[in-house]
Amino acid sequence: MTPLLSVQGVAKRYGAQIGCTDVSFDLYPGEVMGIVGESGSGKSTLLNCMAGHLSPDAGRVIFDTRAEGPRDTLTMSEPERRMLGRTDWAFVHQHARDGLRMGVSAGGNVGERLMAVGARHYGDIRHKALDWLDRVEIDAGRVDDRPTTFSGGMQQRLQIARNLVTGPRLVFMDEPTGGLDVSVQARLLDLLRGLVRDMGLSAIIVTHDLAVVRLLADRLMVMKSGHVVEAGLTDQVLDDPQHAYTQLLVSSVLQV
Amino acid sequence: MTGDSYNFAYLDEQTKRMIRRAILKGLAVPGYQVPFASREMPMPYGWGTGGVQVSAAVLTPEDRFKVIDQGADDTTNAVSIRSFFQRTAGVETTTATEEATVIQTRHRIPEAPLGEGQILVYQVPIPEPLRFLEPRESETRKMHSLEEYGLMHVKLYEDISRHGHIATSYAYPVKVEARYVMDPSPIPKFDNPKLNDCPAIQLFGAGREQRIYALPPYTRVTSLDFEDHPFEATKADHPCGLCGAGDSYLDEVIVDDAGGRMFVCSDTDYCESRQRQSHRGKDAA
Amino acid sequence: MIELNNVSKTFTLHNQGGAVIEVLNDVSLRVAPGECVALTGASGSGKSSLMRMIYGNYRAQGGAIRVGGIDLVQAEPREVIRIRRDVMGYVSQFLRVVPRVPTLEVVAEPLRAIGVARDEAEARARELLAQLNIPEPLWSLSPTTFSGGEQQRVNIARGFAHAYPAMLLDEPTASLDATNRDVVLTLIEQAKARGAAIIGIFHDEAARERVCDRMINVGDFTPGRAA
Fold first, then answer.
1. CATH for C32-60+76-221?
2. Which residues of A touch B161 (CB under 8 A)?
3. Using one digit for the tens of pLDDT, what is the confidence trace for A114-125?
4. Looking at the domain assignment, is residue A176 inside a domain?
5. Touching pair A, C by Cβ (3+ pairs < 8 Å)
6. Considering only residues 26 to 85 of chain A, which have any Cβ-Cβ distance to chain C shorter than 8 Å?
7. CATH topology of domain B3-129+172-223
8. What is the ipTM of this complex?
């Protein structure tokens, strides 16, 4: 089987400071991988390098494109990469306002990606937007409201709908449940799990919340000071951590 | 002060040359916004500083110059700009569309068909059609260069979802030669079809925003729309009260304290020439 | 179906002076289809650890653990996930679920994961929940609020939803009343009859007698220090 995403020797430096270095892994279709580590461990840098928001200093990020098979996204032309960004890739930001257009209605937010790939039939676009609002449990009556009038959890769900409407194959998520109430988090996690399963999505989730990766991720990568210190099956890494840092991380979580 | 105190058409030759280069570039890449070093003009921003600079750069001593503001030759702005070039360039002026070689306009395209050899200069307040949805200039430039125009339709989508139809009635976005999305300046969408396949040169100047863009003669210009909500060039559903024209864009004028109103051509030259040909509307004296 | 060769396990506690705890040494065993094997041994002898290693939850330091032809010690995460989805079920002592998901969906999930249609998967889930005497009004609620015994039964229902060729059962009858204990033992007997290879930990001796074909004393593999 061809990996959907193959990351090979990716490194990013900020001057003398290491952002992340020597990161390699293969992600297969339908797999969900978590990346955990403390603030400054390089997990967000890595995510942004993979998603094309930052250009790494070394390495390759090979994506199995629909049309032409595996391509290094770092050497692609910018239009091609941006096209991927609104078709086969999705990016869910920690803060919904970074991923939404706050001045545009919920329906317009969901419809934008459709229009960006050429949808020109208002009725169809609206129908799809309503369908997606339903899938992320937002009442159809809110379709013409702006996200500024939504709660944090609703904004996050709208961001997810907006990202998934074009049927992407790979979703990058940066702390998708950060900053939400615990009860809202649970609902979002449940929703994400269902969508990942039903759409056969592959996902890379950056978080510092070990409970989130336990519920969502098949695989886990632990980062410290820009290096991957441990990787493996999520429950194995969490229940039988091998590296000193992972042991510390796991034992530092408060039990409830 | 006499005209001799100034260079021809107010601006110095180097500046005009710089503006002409921007215009030529704009003509070469229709619909593309060319940055230019806009000068301080002896008038406030928003009064047509962009249009005036473009006019200054294209005027020659042989030109006949016309200025309209919302279609009218007789409003303060039109009168001032016309006399400005009368004094600084000594060019002939006219109010007749057919006789003019250069027409500077704010918010209208004349009703009378334009011909080859004419130049229409638009005053543009905000040249960037994507501005209201994407405030970052760095991002909108990228969107233009990569032809990422989905956002433009988001604006139209918002219109339909809120009003049931595309309510944008002026500055209605267009696509030029199937490439650049362009703001046609705040002309009513009634005028949009006149942008297309026009024999005259159309130049757009935005002074405060320092941008010039252009449509060479016979450029294909289409208004954006949805398949199930096609573009419509609308106007008030009345004939002109003075000349009886049924095909011209109308202004609504309140005529008394009792709410009485009449509709008249916004293009004063068009209306007057019709009246001279003895066309009469129902409100004509 | 399940085969272990020379498997060993140590824990290295990096944050406690690098202490190394040897848990199991040189474990070899094999379980054939249709066979149920009980792991026995004193508390702390490593029964649960061994079971977790077979499931891939704990990492083995040496040897090979073959389930359905794949060596889980060497396998890529996605292969382990495939084995867990298709081949090997695990009923642990604790139910771990996403909050808010209704019981019916929790039980149907293993079938949904292998592509069974929702209706069919939920029909099987209903059947099992009824068999295990979970009152129907609870099916649409999340099991996170259930009593310990109810959670245990939901866990068993989930574990038996898909007919795995290999099963690991950690104290499946603990904290169950006589009626439900009997239901669970019957489920195990049925699984054996269809050819499942089963490894179980049973403190309940009578249950062990009823379903297990043989016993393996894990204490035999425990390094001297713990004996």
1. 3.40.50.300
2. 105, 107-108, 126, 143-144
3. 999 999 999 999
4. no
5. yes
6. 28, 31
7. Rossmann fold (3.40.50)
8. 0.88
